[in-house]
Design brief:
Blueprint lengths: L1 H11 L7 H14 L26 E2 L6 E2 L3 H8 L3 H7 L11 H13 L14
Antiparallel strand pairs: 1-2
């Protein structure tokens, strides 16, 4: 992080090449003395709800913001520009973590079966 700060400073200010190592060391020491986490992306994530409570029969709860949804995939893409795989990785979720509420998935499955989706073509249809 210190090198990124120094790089930004040097790109906007004239600094002699001989001064760069000392500037980087000073910046690094300053960041360490602040006592904060100097690594980017190492912050602890805190979900909106516990993971176990995020799946209910009627809806899923988004761990990012706590919103209740029947389908999570499209919401993640439009709101956070995140794929289901990225979401699962971010929250350490299993690969089979659902993106659709269980009852809604069952309802859609039943509807698909009723209209004949997923079955082989009937013998009365002409083949191309």
């Amino acid at each position: 992080m210190a090198s990124e700060i120094v790089s930004a400073y040097v790109s906007n200010n004239a600094v002699a090449a001989a001064e760069l190592p000392a500037m980087i060391k000073t910046m690094h020491d300053t960041l360490l003395s602040l006592g904060g986490n100097t690594e980017i992306g190492k912050t602890e994530l805190d979900p909106a709800v516990p993971v176990k409570k995020s799946i209910t029969p009627e809806y899923l709860i988004c761990l990012e913001d706590g919103k209740r949804l029947k389908m999570l995939k499209r919401y993640l893409r439009s709101r956070y520009n995140m794929s289901p795989e990225e979401y699962r990785a971010r929250w350490n979720l299993p690969a089979d973590y659902p993106m659709v509420a269980p009852n809604y998935a069952a309802q859609r499955s039943q509807l698909a079966k009723e209209i004949g989706l997923g079955q082989a073509a009937s013998s009365g249809r002409r083949k191309r």
